[in-house]
Design a protein that fits this description.
Order of helices and strands: EEEEH
Number of helices: 1
InterPro entries: UCP037692
Protein name: YheE family protein
Length: 67
Amino acid sequence: MLQHFRVQPMFEGGQLPGWTFSFQQGAERYTGDYMPDGTIKWTTAAPSNEEDVKKMVHELMTFHVYE
């Protein structure tokens, strides 16, 4: 489960190219960039369960950004 999920536009005014996000999973903190096409570029080491986390991040981004 992802805790303390935060998202913000990469640039002031919400202009694309994407968003930065961060979250806590267990004792680890992760950050990354979410691109408009749904790809994720990790700015920290990727979590060991990366594919599962990507699905959760995509769902959260859909909720926070697109709706």
